[in-house]
């Protein structure tokens, strides 16, 4: 009976560690998604800026 209790305790400990790890990974993933969204917005703004500047840019005679 002690062996079963020991094994159950070990499983509970493992489960707790895995649950904590999943919470930490979820937080990292959420942060990454927020950063990706920010970078996508910055990229869109930069593309719009370049497109707006494009008509006013003239090629130099050397090009």
Description of the structure:
It is a single chain. This protein is mostly helical. Helix content is 83%, strand content 0%. The chain contains one helix and no strands. The longest helix has 52 residues. The protein is rod-shaped and about 90 Å long.
In total, the number of strands is 0
Kindly, what is the distance between the CA atoms of the first and last residues, rounded to a whole number of angstroms?
Answer: 85 Å
Classify the secondary structure makeup into a structural class. mainly alpha
Please indicate the percent range of residues in DSSP E strands (runs of 2 or more).
under 5%
Radius of gyration: 27 Å
The profile of the biggest β sheet is: none
Q: What is the H-and-E element order? A: H
Q: List low-confidence stretches.
A: none
The proportion of residues forming helix, as a percent range, comes to: over 70%
| Shape descriptor | rod-shaped
Please give the count of helices.
Answer: 1
What average pLDDT do the residues reach?
92
């Amino acid at each position: 009976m002690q062996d079963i209790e020991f094994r159950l305790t070990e499983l509970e400990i493992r489960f707790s560690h895995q649950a904590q790890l999943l919470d930490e990974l979820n937080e990292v993933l959420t942060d990454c998604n927020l950063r990706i969204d920010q970078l996508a917005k910055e990229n869109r703004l930069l593309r719009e800026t370049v497109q707006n500047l494009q008509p006013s840019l003239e090629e130099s005679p050397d090009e």
